[in-house]
Amino acid sequence: MIKLCCNYVDEAVIGCENGLNIKQEFENYKDRIANIISDLNKRKDKPGQWLQWMNLGYSEETVWYVKEYASMVQGRFENILVLGIGGSALGGLAVTEALLKPYWNLLTEEQREGLPRIFFLDNIDPDTMTGLLNMLDLSKTLVNVITKSGSTAETMSQFMIVKNILEQELGSNYRYNIVATTDKRTGVLRQIAEQEGYKTFVVPDDVGGRFSVFSAVGLLPFALVGLDIDEMVNGIKDMDLALKNTDINENIAAQNALIHYLLDTQKGKNMSVMMPYSSRLKYVSDWFVQLWAESLGKSDYVGPTPIKALGATDQHSQIQLYNEGPNNKVINFIRVDEFDNTLEIPNIFEYTGIGYLGGKSVNRLLNAEADSTRVALTDNKRPVVTITLDKINGYNLAQLLYMLEVQTAITGELYGIDAFNQPGVEQAKNYTYALMGRAGYEESAQELERKMAAV
Ligand code: PA5
Asked: Which ligand 1 atom is nearest residue 425's CA?
């Protein structure tokens, strides 16, 4: 179960200049929010609305095919290598980091219960790529290449390198080491997959990369490393039901969307910090940053800027700024009530400065730090929202990610922008094509060269 606490953004706690009269604002926006929620739910099945991600919890067919393929290849590969970038990688990273045993890739095969290690190659750094390729035995690796467009330069260049090595090592059998996740009909990867006979999965129509974690984009890698995808699907379905409630007082995605929107537009809080107090949730921040940035950073509106942080680590890095620097941020804490392990600190020193730690648990220390940091921030009149997970498991994590997706969609509606396109990303992609000599981009290439030479 997940809960949202927004008491610490209330003007009763942090004052009128920085806080909101929550009860009053929920009342003021009651009808607008109800309209947004029912409109999103009405539009979600219409082609071209980019809202099909709201149906992913009900895609029994995908779950079935993913599980069937995962069980078919089980035991055949030592490693899974995911090639993808942005929305094609971040959800996978966030979920596997949160749900697999910590340091999964360093565990023995026995400790992993025979399940493969998993690597995400989400950049094209020649040094790290070479390092990974030197370390992995590709003949014992299943490569899941994920790209909706089928032509993203980073992913496809990785794929071309990996495919070449595989073919040299395995001959025509190399194709059994590749599974492609891409658009149903269009794109170069789809053409290659059909020509070469790869197993494929589909990135559904009207699901953008950053909303695709619960399509085959995420579900396939999750199933391949033995995660319980039924548990995740149950979490999404239950959260979806809860978020269909048009009453803002009962809908946590709508509450957090409105809070962020009002704090930005009325109180100048145009930055949103995502700060889980759990290392396992570290990549949830990365995933959220992309979701929030690509969805809400649009040309007619500047911001809100998302920032990733980790508690307690970043208390020793960023909190000074958040406590005393510009008061222009909403800080989102994610707090976990019950960790899988309880780690006691032994009572071995009597020094006043550290003796008090002995006999307490690290669990208690981490949550005490979350609570005390929250109070310190609100002492300084900084708004803090807290999302609490009773435990980290597939059900709660899926609820959290789906809630944040719906929150993003509602926030986009409040700003009156299209949360589902990304023209700013496309523009840079096109410039790259021009610089790298792709046919059809000759004019852009000349223009770019002129511009670069002039600086
Ligand atoms: O959210 C998005 O749409 C983007 O971040 C894409 O996921 C990213 O650009 C990768 O695109 P593709 O899946 O087409 O390779």
From this structure: 9
Q: How far is the CA of 449 from the centre of ligand 1 (A)?
A: 26
Omega cis (within 30) before 312 = yes
Q: How far apart are CA 102 and CA 311, in angstroms?
A: 17
Please count the structural domains in the chain: 2
Provide the domain limits for residue 89.
52-229
What does the pLDDT look like over 79-127, one tens digit per residue? 999 999 999 999 999 999 999 999 999 999 999 999 999 999 999 999 9
Give residue 130's pLDDT. 97
Q: Is residue 68 part of a domain?
A: yes
- Cβ pair 410, 253 in contact under 8 A: yes
Output the CA 87–ligand 1 centroid distance in Å: 5
Is pLDDT above 90 for 291?
yes
Nearest CA to ligand 1 atom 2: 209
Mean pLDDT of the chain: 95
How many angstroms separate the CA atoms of 239 and 402, rounded? 7
Same domain, 158 and 291: no
Q: Can you give the pLDDT at residue 241? A: 97
Nearest Cα residue to atom 9 of ligand 1: 86
* CB distance 87 to ligand 1 below 6 Å: yes
197 alpha carbon to ligand 1 midpoint, in Å? 24
Q: How far apart are CA 76 and CA 99, in angstroms?
A: 22
Whether 78 is covered by a domain: the verdict is: yes
In percent, the amount of the chain with pLDDT more than 70 equals: 99
Inside any domain, residue 432:
no
Q: Is the CB of 425 under 6 A from ligand 1?
A: yes
In three-state secondary structure terms, 19 is: coil
Q: Which atom of ligand 1 is nearest to the CA of 217?
A: 13
pLDDT given for residue 213 in this prediction: 98
Q: What is the pTM of this model?
A: 0.96
Domain shared by 213 and 289, yes or no: no
CB atoms within 10 A of CB 267: 20
- Residue from 120, 121, 149, 151 to probe ligand 1 pocket by mutation (most atoms less than 8 Å from CB): 149
Question: Is 46 domain-assigned?
Answer: no
| One domain for residues 33 and 114 | no
What CATH number does the domain containing 201 carry? Answer: 3.40.50.10490
Q: Known catalytic residues?
A: 294, 316, 429
* Same domain? 15 vs 56: no
* 152: CB partners within 8 A, 6+ apart: 85, 88, 429
378 shares a domain with 250:
yes
Q: Is 181 in the pocket of ligand 1 (CB under 6 A)?
A: no
